[in-house]
Each structure stands twice: as structure tokens, then as C-alpha cells.
Amino acid sequence: MLSGLLKGLKNLIYPNLCLACGDLIKTTPGQEHICAGCWGKIENNRPPFCATCGRHLDIEAIRKNSCPHCLNEKFHFDRAFSPCVYTGIIKKLIHEFKYNGKDYLITPFTALMNTFIRQYCLPIEHLDFIIPVPLHKSRQREREFNQAQLLSQRIANEFNKNLLSDLLIRNKAVKTQTELTLPERRRNVEGSFTVTKPDLIKDTNLLLIDDVLTTGATSSAAARSLKDAGAKTVILMTLAN
After folding, report:
1. Where are the beta strands (DSSP E) in 77-204?
2. Are the beta carbons of 207 and 161 closer than 8 angstroms?
3. What does the pLDDT look like over 165-196, one tens digit per residue?
4. Domain range spanning residue 155?
């Protein structure tokens, strides 16, 4: 009875509010901070997928097996996959995760990614290592964590894969990509990654993890460094694109 009373007082003083809409929510395991209504509004990526970036293909693009963006771009990762479309609820939650310290969202986020891996039979059993896209040390000090590292660790644990946290590093601080054009983004991240132990990944198949794929400039630059160091295949997975 006492524990129930204390829990009731805690809920009264610190009500459990949905991070997306602000409404009071009942606790559901794995969804403690997102109400059922907002959870259901997260837009999922559905097949058919673009053979490069993994976005959903509309009817006009199916014949070419590629979205219009990827037809005109050269990426250094071999394929990319994302369970969610970067819009609406998931976009807001990722912003809370990265910039407002809501790192506990890692649990529902990785649940989405792990479910997608199983649902669409991604060839994770054939991948040798999981590698997070790193932050520059100054950016990580500012944010206090690397979102890609947290995602990678949970996925590695779920599928019993080896995680190489420090193999890929950011060797220079760059401007945020948010306000830059695509050509500016490419120039901004060019040469900004270094592989510390190339012998570890020679002739390997890698899963590169990040939170979001937008233009692909950052992920492609990271994949290029891994390929230049000897990796055979680099598959990219993000939470949203």
C-alpha cells in the first residue's frame, strides 16, 4: 500500500508526459515517454526500398530501383536502411534525444531498428563489425554522448556482434551540416574521418550506424574512409531517413 501511495505522489508531482505531444500518458514497457497515439503516428519506411539510400520508392521510381536523389549521386556506402521516415513525431523525438539530453529514448529507438532488421532480414549475420559514426571530441564534450555510439551498442548486444567504438574517429571539427547546401556538406566533411587500425577491417563487411540519413554526405565520407582502409562492404543503418 505504501509503495502504491508513493508512486501516486510521484506521478502527481512528476507526471509522465509524452515528449511528442505533452499529454499525460500511462506507462507502457518500452514506451514510457511516448503516448500510444504518437507512437502510432511515427511514419515507417516501407518497401520497395531504394537500392542505395533505402527510402521508399514511389511507382515512378520502382522501374529504376532507385530514388531520384540517388540516381544523381555517388555514395561510398553500399546500401542504407532506416526503419523510419525523418518527419513528424520521430524527427521531434530525435531532436529531443540529441540536443535536450533525452538519452533514455535509446530504448524505443533501438527497438525500432532491431525490429526492422528482423522484419526485413537484413544480412547482419554476414557483417563482421558494427561501427558508429563518431562525433568530434569537442562536439561530444558539448553533447556528453554520441547518439550513434548508444544505438550501435544496443544493436551489437541484441545481435551478438563485435562493436569497434574507437576505430573510426573525427579528426577535425566541422560546421553543423543543417544549414548547408549539398555541395557545401560534401566539402564540409571531406577528409574529416580517420581509421585508427586499418588492419582490423581489411576485407571485412561492416555495419555503419548513425541516427539520421539526410543528404548522405557525412555517412558517405565515413564509409569512404572505411573502404580506403580496406573494408570490403559498408552497409549503413540509421534510425530515420
Report:
1. 79-81, 129-132, 162-163, 168-170, 193-195
2. yes
3. 999 998 876 657 666 666 667 777 777 899 99
4. 15-44+75-240
